[in-house]
């Protein structure tokens, strides 16, 4: 059971990571980040079957932080969109050297 | 320990006498320099950018007046002070900023003597330095008090005649390892003679300067420098170790530089100062190397210690010869000997009292003092001593030859000084240390007198030229002539000095020069020196050659000095019809020192009368006086040599005959009446041109030393090192291009795209995890 859970968790993580790395739309990337977070949550819960409840407690903590992060992240996304009139990150390169 | 020291000090016969107060002699001029320096800073004047004539002297502009009468009447009519004051400050600077070439407009008819007189009166009272009385009192007063203390110390020494020097330690300057340098004074017969000459002649020259420099705006600065010079000179002669002496040695060099370039607004003067300083540096390297070698081998820098160590060495070791030669290198720089003499003629750019004090009487004789002070070192190195004598002889002849055809009155005296310094080195080179010091003293008298007299002449010339705004050369003898009528006192005193320097008895120079030549002749047989050899030639032959060249130089000396006197004081006046009416004898502040020096030039010979002429007074006083200091060294180098009385009489007769021939020959052959003013004189040709061009030594140095150095500096150091390595490689390369290139590379990594950074992060995480996993 735990093996399958971890395998699924890793799969989710990689999917999220590939999404972050390859997609250009800022909203998609944001969703991919959430996917990665949840993959980690899944693995924490899976491990808690071996090490007691601390994994589950930690998963709840991560969800709380993720909620806060989502608020800040979406605010940034809106600010970026207002400024650049686009949600395509390929056009956002003000820090180019 | 303290008690022992006190007991040892108490044992010295000079303890508790005025000799203990010699530190005050040193510090008084320093005090004067400090006060006058302060006064000069609060009255400091400098040419501003809006000064119409700031390239020259910063004078107020004077509207050019077309004629003398116009100017005089404007002045007397209570008008334009600026016109009147435009003379004085430039009076001594050699520039005449007023006139605009209106000489030709003088019309004898409108010439009114009363106006001229009135003009002269105005000229007598130009605006002076604000603190002139205070500066004069401080400048001359400190010198006079110092002289009085020196005389008291001298009298105390005469009473007790100590055999050992009085050495007073004041504090430890630095102690490092084996080096322990104490600030201490060394009072013995030699240093007291030097102190008397410096403070005595120095006081007279300071007094002269109050007259000569009274119209200079930088009056206080002048006296500050002069007093500072005397301070350093006294440190030089009273210090007890080579290092203390070196402080004075460098200090007088600095003061010499400052005073040569005193009128620094003329570029030539500033250049002359630089030249003197730089040429002296070459010699000073020798001093330093000699000190290093002495410390390395003798482990001390004290005069006592070094001389004792050198006296213990066998004669003619390579070590002591090298030390002696390096020391002499320093002397050649400071005392203007071949090949480093070139700075001294240029040093005449300074005010004339400076030339008298620094470049004739005191500083340039420091080299002679150094050789005498290091007598044991030179006595242990006969071949080095022969080199000293040879350089001295050649310098004496060389400079005398150049002096034959100089037209600038101060240049004649400058070359004469070099020549006489050569005589002194001839003396100390053959081990006749007393004769060298004797000539040093008498030379200080008569050469200071000659320079001060020349100063009076130049002073009169400048004043006369200023009345008419003449731009001619006020120091050129071709523009003088017949000054005997205008300046009888100066004329008489200058003749005394001329006879003295030519070696006519009973004037001072006769005794000292005769003693030098006699010693050279005497030491040619039976002395250590005669046994030594140089360049494969025996010392004896060298000494006879030196004697012959010395006699030849004496002849030339008589000729060029007489020439100077004839052209300056005799014959018709070539100054100009109008100008010559304004020639005046100098004020008393200037004539009194000249007269006193004249008396000394007459009587100076009595200091050291040869045994042969014993009927004139006590024999050999200076010799007995200096015996505790120089006797052992002189004995070691030239001992056992004495002249038969008949032979000595012959030598004296020859010397006198030579001098008389020189003077009479010059009087007979030279025709002052045929001389033309400088502007109308034709160029010399042939050998005369060579002499007038000073053998073109400056050009030679320029061609083979200065220009190659400059070219090398420009090409290698400037273009290669400064621009090539430091600027191009270091600053532009490592400082600018390389960081810029690295920054470019770094900036390429910054795409500004978030996904690129995410890629980098992922790769990094994978790498770190990979390392941890595979480890």
Architecture overview:
The complex is a heterodimer of chains A (97) and B (775). By secondary structure, chain A is mainly α. Chain A has one domain (2-90): Helix Hairpins. Chain A is built from 3 helices and no strands. In chain A, α1 (2-22) runs antiparallel to α2 and α2 packs antiparallel against α3. The N and C termini of chain A lie far apart (49 Å). The mean pLDDT of chain A is 91. Chain B has 775 residues and is mainly alpha-helical. Chain B has 3 domains: 44-124, no CATH class; 261-609 and 616-692, no CATH class; 699-774. In chain B, 67% of the residues lie in helices and 3% in strands. Chain B contains 30 helices and 4 strands. Chain B has helices spanning 2-11, 22-42, 68-76, 81-85, 88-91, 113-124, 132-160, 189-212, 219-238, 242-260, 267-298, 303-312, 318-334, 343-346, 352-361, 366-373, 375-379, 382-403, 409-429, 433-468, 488-502, 508-522, 528-531, 539-569, 588-603, 621-638, 645-669, 686-692, 697-749, 754-774, and strands at 166-176, 179-187, 533-534, 537-538. In chain B, strands 1-2 form a two-stranded antiparallel sheet. Chain B has a two-stranded antiparallel sheet with strand order 3-4. In chain B, α8 (189-212) packs parallel to α20 (433-468), α19 packs parallel to α22 and α21 runs antiparallel to α24 (539-569).
Strand content of chain A: under 5%
Terminus-to-terminus distance of chain B: 76 Å
Number of strands of chain A: 0
| Category from helices, strands and their pairing of chain B | mainly alpha
End-to-end separation of chain A: 49 Å
**Oligomeric state as shown:** heterodimer
Tell me the domain tally of chain B: 3
Order the strands across the largest sheet of chain B as they lie in space.
1-2
The CATH level-2 architecture of chain A is identified as Orthogonal Bundle
Structural class of chain A: mainly alpha
Order of helices and strands of chain A: HHH
Q: Which CATH class of chain A is shown?
A: Mainly Alpha
What global shape of chain A is seen? elongated
The whole-angstrom Rg of chain A is 16 Å
Name the average pLDDT of chain B: 84
Tally of alpha and pi helices of chain A: 3
Count of beta strands of chain B: 4
